[in-house]
């Protein structure tokens, strides 16, 4: 058995580094393992990012709540926010962080949280075939106690 020579080992190393770092299809869409907890009236962030980071500025990013009709919470497509099919209860309350899209961060900011916002949200990047789900739990302050309604 002959040992592998340095050029072969270098080639194999460079191949794998190139393949896993430069093909965005290899990225994973990462979200929180636990539910996000928010208080009525506050702003909250539903975390979602690609790892390794891949710029998504020119891609489509879709946030939905599958239990709603229409289910669209926020849609970003090729540099534009598409709000025409957005569920009415989210009008003017959702946004992405434009400066973070180039780093693969597609987290959703939800402003002025309502009790009705509680549920499971789906983040989807169609061109990469990647999706993940995050749960939002909403509570309300009452007499200095946080109460969660079921």
From TrEMBL:
One of its GO terms (molecular function) is signaling receptor binding. Its main location: membrane. InterPro entries: Ig-like_dom (IPR007110), Ig-like_dom_sf (IPR036179), Ig-like_fold (IPR013783), Ig_sub (IPR003599), Ig_V-set (IPR013106), IgSF_BTN/MOG (IPR050504). It comes from Myripristis murdjan. Pfam families: V-set (PF07686). It is found in: Membrane. One of its GO terms (biological process) is T cell receptor signaling pathway. Keywords: Disulfide bond, Glycoprotein, Immunoglobulin domain, Membrane, Signal, Transmembrane, Transmembrane helix. This is Ig-like domain-containing protein. GO terms for cellular component: external side of plasma membrane. The chain crosses the membrane at residues 6-23. Residues 24-133 form the Ig-like domain.
